Amino acid sequence: MTLSKERRIGRHATLLVLADDKTEQQDLIDRLPWKSCNGKVGSMDSQKVVAAIETAAKQTGVIQSGVYRETHALYHATMEALHGVTRGQVQLGSVLRTVGLRFAVVRGNPYESEQEGEWLAVALYGTIGAPVKGLEHETIGLGINHI
């Protein structure tokens, strides 16, 4: 079971979320043999972050709406990424924190063997802090889960 540099799904999701403009994002997407989507979300409610990512993944065909295991895998990858963003305490508004995040979701098989199946990577990058403009700092999170 080998994981080559070109097949590192988390690396690709992170590069996609960090891309500065649409052209750079499209170049990354075109190079990938996998499905992906990206977007933005800002909220004091972690449920809204999860919902925005799930909605984008379903609307772009990264996951299938009626297949529970795909939604379940996305949920776990998203929660893992949120743990990174929130430093292990997945709380926002209840502790007076807000986030402004970009997200990227990548779906594919990071292994050489097709038998390993597909995986999902969710990368989050943006700001977190008090709900006052200028009182935030950068944050990043990555979650990976098998389907």
TrEMBL record:
Example GO biological process: positive regulation of gene expression
InterPro entries reported for this sequence: Regulatory_HutP, Regulatory_HutP_bacillales, Regulatory_HutP_sf
Transmembrane as UniProt keyword: no
GO MF terms, alphabetically ordered: mRNA binding
UniProt-listed Gene3D superfamilies: Hut operon regulatory protein HutP
Coiled coil: none
Transcription regulation as UniProt keyword: yes
Keywords, ordered alphabetically: Activator, Histidine metabolism, RNA-binding, Transcription, Transcription regulation
Pfam families the record matches: HutP (PF09021)
Domain of life: Bacteria
Family per record: Belongs to the HutP family.
Subunit structure: Homohexamer.
HAMAP family hit by this protein: HutP
Protein role: Antiterminator that binds to cis-acting regulatory sequences on the mRNA in the presence of histidine, thereby suppressing transcription termination and activating the hut operon for histidine utilization.
This protein's name: Hut operon positive regulatory protein
Source organism (scientific name): Exobacillus caeni
